Amino acid sequence: MLFFTKMLDACKLGIKDVAIINHNTNPVTIAELNEELNPRIVLLFGLEPTAIKLPFNSPSFKIQEYNNCFYLYVPGLDELSKDTEEGKLLKSKLWVCLRKLFEI
To answer: What is the residue-level pLDDT of the chain in tens, covering all 104 positions?
Structure first.
């Protein structure tokens, strides 16, 4: 959670600006997300787009636009928060994408 809140701070967002859904405990589809939240940006941490019934898959760190929303699939938070060279590289890739998505 610490990594996630730091990420929000860097994007000039707070917890009130986001909806966090644990797909493992509360599986949802994109149709349900659109109906309930009407998101403009969806970050998928360790969850491929097809898992929420999106009609596409995309590689990690590739921003995908679909149906007036931007989607970004990245490795899980456990991988991103590792204090290793690999973890630092993943965080760097994520930061590049977040700067594009949130125009920072």
So the answer is: 788 888 889 899 988 999 999 999 999 999 999 999 999 999 999 999 999 999 999 999 999 999 999 999 999 988 988 899 999 999 999 999 999 999 98
What pTM did the predictor assign?
Answer: 0.90
Separation of alpha carbons 17 and 8, rounded Å: 9
Domain range for 22: 2-102
In sequence order, what DSSP letters do the residues of 47-91 get, joined into one string?
Answer: --GGGGT-S----TT--EEETTEEEEEE--HHHHT-SSHHHHHHH
Whether 24 and 46 have beta carbons less than 8 Å apart is answered as no
Q: What is the number of domains present in the chain? A: 1
Three-class SS state of 29: coil
